[in-house]
Amino acid sequence: MPKFKLTIAYDGTDFVGWQRQASGVSIQGLLEHALEELDGAPVSVTGAGRTDAGVHALGQTASCVVRRIIAPDVLTRAINARLPPEVRVMDAAEADPAFHARFDAQAKTYRYRIWNGDVISPFERRYAWHVADRLDLAAMCTAARSLEGRHDFASFQSAGSTVRSSERTLMRSRFLTGCTVTEHTDANGGSESRLLCYEVIGDGFLRHMVRAIVGTLVEIGRGRWPADRIVQLVASRDRAEAGPTAPAAGLFLVDVRYGAL
Amino acid sequence: MPKFKLTIAYDGTDFVGWQRQASGVSIQGLLEHALEELDGAPVSVTGAGRTDAGVHALGQTASCVVRRIIAPDVLTRAINARLPPEVRVMDAAEADPAFHARFDAQAKTYRYRIWNGDVISPFERRYAWHVADRLDLAAMCTAARSLEGRHDFASFQSAGSTVRSSERTLMRSRFLTGCTVTEHTDANGGSESRLLCYEVIGDGFLRHMVRAIVGTLVEIGRGRWPADRIVQLVASRDRAEAGPTAPAAGLFLVDVRYGAL
Q: Is residue A118 less than 8 Å (CB to CB) from chain B?
C-alpha cells in the first residue's frame, strides 16, 4: 500500500489545532475524514508537529498510507476537493514505506509575526500579535541570537508536558530584517508601524516553546529586562522566571526538514 | 468646525463596498455611524474612490467634518473603537477646510494580485484571484506596459456608468517583479505557484476598469490573444471586445495621492 508525504498549509484561526480533540474541528481530523471518504476505509494521518489552536502552517508535513493506487497530483486534488478552503494540501509525493513525518523530522522552522504600531492592519489581525508599545528591536535581536545552540529550554516549556528531556538545539533564532517593513508613517512623522518577524529553526520544540520565547523577547523589547537576562532565564530552568506565552495567531509552522529521504 | 483627512484600510471580503447601499454593510456606512456616535450628530464621509463589494483597501482616503474639537490621534482611537477589526483608520490628520477627498485626488494606485498555480494558499483565498492555467507572464508584462499614457478606456468600462469622458491617463501599468515569488515547488520540480502583482497608477479610473484590464491581461497570458492585441482592444472602445472582469477579491486600493495639500 503506497505511503504519501503531504505538505499542508492552513489558516489555523478557526480550528482547535492540528490534533484531533474530543470536540471542535482539527486539521488532522479534516484530513483523516477526507482520506477515509476517498479510500473507503479509515486512514491515519501523522503530522510532523502538533500545532496548537490558532497556530498557522505554511508547510506542515504529514504521512499517511492509503489502499488505493493513486497518482500524487490526483490525490492532492481529491483531498482538496473535500477540505474547507482554510486547509490546503499544497503537495503530495510518494514516500518510502519507512517514512514517518514526526520521527524522521530533522528540523522545523517556525516564524512568529509581531505588528508593532498603534493600529493593526485589518490584513494582519489573524496573523500577527499586536504590540502597541515601543520595542527596542536591537535588544530583541541580541537576545534572540543568544538562544542559538544547544540548551535546556525548560524555562520555555508549558506545564503538562511529558517529554523526557527539555534539551533542544536551535540552529537559528533571529529576527528577519527583511520582514521589518515600515507599513505606514503618519502625517506628523510620529508613530509608525512595523512588522517584526522572528524565525527559529530547531531540531525539536517543547510545548508552547516558540510562543514563550517570543513572549520573553517582547518583555526585553519593552525594557523590562536587558537582552542578556535571557541567558539567566534559560539557566533558571523555571517557567515562572520567563515571559508570558505570546498569542497563537502570530505563529506559523513554515517548514519541516528531512534527511536524504 | 475641523475637517479631517482619514487614511483607511479594510478587508473588503464581507462588505457591500465603500458606498452606502440600500442593504448590507458598507465601509462608508460604518465610518459615518461611528462618527455620528462620537460627534452626536450625522457626519458625512467622502471617500476618494468607491471600491466595489469584495475590494480591499490599504490606503483609502476620506474627508469629513466634525463639530467636536479633537486631536487626530484621539479621533483615530475613538473611531477604531467603534469599528469591526476588518476596518481600521490607520491615520487621521487635520486638513484644509477646502480639502475634498475625491475631487482633490490627483492619482490613485491599485494593485491586483493573481495566484498562479494548481493550489491556492489558504492565506491568499480572500486576497487573490486563483488562476490555475499556465500564464505567459512576459506577454502580460508587455501588454500591461502598452496601456501607459493617455487613452480612451471605454473598452474597459462596465455598463451603467455615467461619466462624461472615458479618457484617463495611466502613469504606471506594470507587473511588480518583486511580487513574483515562488511560494512552493513540488517534489517533482513540476508545477510551482507564483503570486503575480499588477500595479496601476492613474489620474482616475472608470467603473470596473482595473478588473477589466486584469481580465484582459489574463486572457493574453493564457494565449487567447497576442500581447499587442490590447492596443486594438483599446482602440475598439467596445467593452465586448475585451476580456472578462476579474474577481473583486484580488483588488486593492493602495494609495491616493494629493497635491501640496
A: yes
Which amino acid is present at A116? N
Tell me which chain A residue has its CA closest to the CA of residue B87.
A122
Single-letter amino acid, residue B188? N
Distance CA A104, CA B204 (A): 56
Q: How far is CA A96 from CA A1, A42, A72, A73, in A?
A: 11, 21, 14, 17
Q: What is the pLDDT along chain A (261 residues), one digit of tens a residue?
A: 899 999 999 999 999 999 999 999 999 999 999 999 999 999 999 999 999 999 999 999 999 999 988 999 999 999 999 999 999 999 999 999 999 999 999 999 999 999 999 999 999 999 999 999 999 999 999 999 999 999 999 999 987 777 789 999 999 999 996 444 444 444 444 457 899 999 999 999 999 999 999 999 999 999 999 999 999 999 999 999 999 999 999 999 999 999 854
Distance between CA atoms of B46 and B5, rounded to whole angstroms?
Answer: 10
Q: What's the whole-model pTM score?
A: 0.90
Q: How close A119 comes to chain B (CA, Å)?
A: 6
By the 8 A CB rule, do B137 and B122 touch?
A: no
Please confirm, yes or no, whether B152 is among the known catalytic residues. no
